Amino acid sequence: MNELSAERYDAWYRTPRGACIGDAEFRLLAGLLQAAAGERLLDVGCGTGYFTRRFARDGRLAVTGIDPDPHRIAYAAAHASPCDQYLVGDARELPFPDRSFDCTVCVTALCFIADERAALREMLRVTRRRLVLGLLNRASLLYLRKRATASYRGAHWHTARDVRALFGGLPAHELRLRSAVFLPGGGAFARRVEAWLPASWLAGGFLAAAVDAG
Fold first, then answer.
1. Domain count, the chain
2. What is the DSSP letter of 185?
3. Stretch 1-19: mean pLDDT, rounded?
4. What is the domain-level CATH number for residue 10?
5. What is the rounded distance in angstroms from the CA atom of residue 210 to the CA atom of residue 214?
6. pLDDT averaged over every residue in the chain
7. Would you say residue 193 lies in a domain?
8. Would you call 163 helix, strand, or coil by DSSP?
9. What share of the chain is helix, strand, coil (3-state, %, to 5)?
10. Could you please report the per-residue DSSP string of 90-120?
11. Which is nearest to 5 in space by CA: 44, 45, 47, 46?
């Protein structure tokens, strides 16, 4: 999906498969974030703003989205509400003071950053309470089906062990790992399965990691 235009990328979330996957990922992220209405949230690598808008609308949060791609930021800004705003920037050098945001999310963007630790340090620096990552899970059916496709070219697929090592020595504690998107095909059957399988089973294509900052 990385090679799609901003318009086509965002439209994918309105397809049956995209809606199914987007809903499952958002539920998992929001459940780990546990943000209170009105809190300030930073969305790092926000792309076209799909999750940024959902957190602003469904979570009733004040959300800032940042991404290095000016075309996707322009698309996101054109579709913004009063509760979400956007700027171009690099995850490895975030243009915000320390502890500027109550919470931070980063949804699969870290998978495309070579220096993951540098980006994580920056996210933790600007976060007061909680950081939640959405990652691509190597131990999943999605990896077996999609790892060689153009949409995922250059992506780093993580395991639970990778994530634990990634946070080692950083100012973060209480790591929680969950997963979703066990059947990446979408559809009614996938939605039923998604509702039945426990998020604690780390076999979904979407691997979420939550830590408390500080």
1. 1
2. T
3. 86
4. 3.40.50.150
5. 13
6. 94
7. yes
8. helix
9. 40, 25, 35
10. -TTS-SS-TT-EEEEEEES-GGG-S-HHHHH
11. 47
Q: Tens digits of per-residue pLDDT, 85-118?
A: 999 999 999 999 999 999 999 999 999 999 999 9
**pLDDT higher than 80, residue 185:** yes
Q: In the chain, how many H helices and how many E strands?
A: 8, 7
Q: Are 22 and 107 in contact (CB under 8 A)?
A: no
Alpha-carbon span 160 to 179, nearest angstrom: 10
The single residue listed with the structure tokens 């780093």 is 156
Question: Is residue 183 exposed (0-12), middle (13-18) or buried (19+ Cβ within 10 Å)?
Answer: buried
Tell me the residue length of the chain: 214
Domain that holds residue 92: 6-213
Burial category of 54 from C-beta neighbours within 10 Å (exposed 0-12, middle 13-18, buried 19 and up) = buried
Is there a contact between 172 and 212 (Cβ–Cβ < 8 Å)?
yes
